[in-house]
Amino acid sequence: MLAVIVGILFISAGLGRLVWDKIAAAIDDRPVARIVEALKIAPGQKIADVGSSDGPFIFPLAEQTGKTGVVYAVDINPKALQKVERLTHKREVGNVRAILAAEADPKIPEPVDLVFISATLHHIKDRPAYLRTLRRYLKSAGRIAVIDPIDRWPPFHGRMKYTLDELDGWMQEAGYRRVEKHDFVPHCFFVIYEVGQ
Ligand SMILES: C[S@@+](CC[C@H](N)C(=O)[O-])C[C@H]1O[C@@H](n2cnc3c(N)ncnc32)[C@H](O)[C@@H]1O
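# S-adenosylmethionine complex -> structure
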């Protein structure tokens, strides 16, 4: 009996997740191409998409940096990374690498020109410490781009909320300065920081 109940709960959770993923994808109104364009990526650059999931930015970023560059798809979810690897293989893309991160350490294999972190920073528990850690993985003129909600947070995200003012404060303490702010991502801020000189 217990096994049946556990089984039903397991299947319901799986179905719930599937349905939520479909809804989330359907209401995802982020202008991906415009966001990637605003990042002004030069061919050959090394990029880390932190919290990439199997999400919408990996391959557009890879297209911008081209064959001589690389995109590290960084996530703590091995299943998402397996999907990234399958897609990479299927699309015959040679410049995307999946990296299994730890909760507090992205484990990017080499210094990068850009850390792109979209809809993910709010999941990280100690954000100020994480942003300090990211400096180790950036080249001296490296940049960090952050996208996160201003409002319209997904369900059950109450405790993860933070504001752009808080982010600016953490970034300043970690030694970055904000260089760009875009207002075209619905319900989200999109800001770019540089390592301070
Ligand atoms: C909402 S998804 C964002 C996917 C994609 N970046 C986008 O904008 O559509 C958040 C992702 O962050 C990942 N994540 C959560 N905590 C993380 C951490 N500490 N380090 C790296 N990835 C993390 C989750 O596994 C999930 O794939």
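# post-check
The beta strands are 46-50, 70-75, 96-100, 112-118, 138-149, 176-182, 188-195.
The chain has two domains: 1-30, 32-195.
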